[in-house]
Structures are given as C-alpha cells and as structure tokens.
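Input.
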Amino acid sequence: MANRLQRMLRQQLQSFSMSGVTSFVNQAGASSTTFEAASTIDSMDRAPTRLDSKEVSELATPSEVSAVSSPSLKSSEDPSIQPVTSTKNSLNMPDKSAQLAVLKEKVATCTLCPDLAVTRTQTVFGTGDANAKIVFMGEAPGAQEDETGEPFVGRAGQLLTKIIEACTLSRSQVFILNTLKCRPPGNRNPTPEEVTHCRPYFDEQLAIIQPQYLVCLGAIAARSLLATDLAIGKLRGKFHNYNDIKVLATYHPAYLLRNPSAKKEVWLDMQFLMKDIGIPLPASKNP
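Output.
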C-alpha cells in the first residue's frame, strides 16, 4: 500500500513539475516546494512501510492530487492543495499588496525624468485597497502630495473624498493613483516624455490590482491612459476599454473647484458608474 502510494505521488509530482507548478499551499497557509514534497516521499523509503493515520492524512490523497493535475485549475471540491504557478502578475507572491510594495520601491528610486528626480521631495505611488474594484487616476502630485507622499490630500483631494463618499464608498475601499509619480515643478502639466517614462509604472499597478472600473480624473489622465487627443467633454458619459477594464472619464476635482457648476456633470458620471456596478445613486445627491 505504502509503495503504491509513493509511486503514485512521485508520478504526480513529476507531472506537476513539467506543467510549471513550483509549490503547494495547504489549508493552514503553509507552502512547500515540489522538491521538498519529493524529498518527503523519498524519506518514506527509509521509514517503516506501515504508515499510521496521522502520516497518511499529511499527504495528498489520490482525489486531491487528480483534482489539481492542471496548474491552471483549482479543485472546487477540496482546496487543501492549491498549485502556485509562475506568472507575470503573481511574481510568486499571491498577495497583491506585496507586489505593489515591490513596485513602490522601484518607483522610489526612479530617475528617468532628471528634472523631476532632483526637485521632488519623494515619489507619490498611490494608496488604497490592493484588491479594489474601482481605481481613481489623476494626473500628477501637487505640493501637499509631494510633501506627504499620498495622492489627493489637498483641496482637490478633499473634494474627491466627498465624491467617493457620496457614492456610498470610502477611500479605503478604492485605490487612488496618479499618471506621474513625481510632482512637476510649479505644478505644470506633465510632458509627453514624462508620461511615457511613468506609463510602465501605472500600467503595472493596474495589472496587479486588476480593477473592474477605472475613473480617469481630468483630460491628462484620460488621454495618457487611452492614448487619445479627445477633450474630456467628448470622452465622458460612456465606458472606454483598457485591458478589459471599464474606463470612465470625468472632470478633475481641481477643475470643479474653479468651476463648481461642473459638479452636476461629475455626479451624472458617478451615477452612470455606480448603476453599472449595481448600486444606484439618488439623482438629487451632489458632492
């Protein structure tokens, strides 16, 4: 019985290895590599051939092994063994927060834009829920953001908070980032070259978070993401597509501070967004 189980498990481990499976995670969250599992099986040759019930329970049963024979599938019946594959997004780290932390460190040392690198206090990576369904994307940090390292903390940020809360959400439930990670001197608009340098960073942020919806705040964010020259007035009121993410463009909160009458249009955009999510908003409520 023990010898047959050993042979079967060795064959399955070889199959997993050829398929790209590198490790398993059990129900307790502990991880072990296929090499470690093979070593455990080999050690059975030197152990008594009779296994007690505890030893058997610590090994994968035939049904558990067959249920995860493909690295792209997880067993719907018994999730005690889950294959972990090496993909671009997972980076062997299933925790999105950990992936974002690695990227944040990379951004913090970026010097691709010399003018920004020497004038910034720090980079402003972004903040919020790494598993957020909705991401809000602005254009670039301002003076207060550069000082604190957090996006949208000034007057425009306070208005954005009100907009989010009017949508029955909180900042902790969404993710907020900017097109640029450094403050342009004098709060000028980002240059096309600066956007090009920062694009891999916000592309990777979105690839990690994988939100269902992305709200572009202002023309610069919308044009940078969607690679278009259309004005924000032409872009709003409908969904655009970015890597299967529904993108909605609306006015930047800073614009609303200068033009309060445009708040009505932004609220219509938020109603359109939340209705698609399945959370209808009252027509009269306006941030």
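Residues 14-22, 32-92 have pLDDT under 50 and may be disordered.
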